[in-house]
Amino acid sequence: MMSPLLTAVGFAGAVLTTICWLPQLWKILRERDTRAISFPANFACAIGVACWLIYGAALPDWPLIGSSAVTLALLLAILALKLKHG
User: Where are the domains of the chain?
Assistant: First the structure.
């Protein structure tokens, strides 16, 4: 059984690594400028998050599934906008 502190640390990590993509997505939507965005780096990150999603689904670990699904959706939106705006 995990301690409440360890659970809180895991929850904080999941929330922070998920919401960290929101400012980037918002900036792209607002400015329509993706020149400073690296497609390969974001693509690799999306693949890594997809792996975490598969891993979480195999366990099943709902916090990992939820945070990975939201993070993957944000990354895919950023990648789509990169393709659209260059």
Answer: 4-85
4-85 placed in CATH 3.90.1150.10: no
Q: One digit per residue, pLDDT tens: the chain, 86 residues?
A: 779 999 899 899 999 999 999 999 999 999 999 999 999 999 999 999 999 999 999 999 888 999 999 999 999 999 999 999 98
Phi first, then psi: give them for residue 37, nearest 5 degrees: -90, 130
- Within its chain, how far is the Cα of 78 from the centroid? 10
Tell me the C-alpha distance between 68 and 65, whole Å.
5
pLDDT value, residue 39 = 97
Residue type, 4: P
Among all chains, which residue has been given the structure tokens 């929850």? 11
**Residue 78 near residue 24 (C-beta atoms within 8 A):** yes
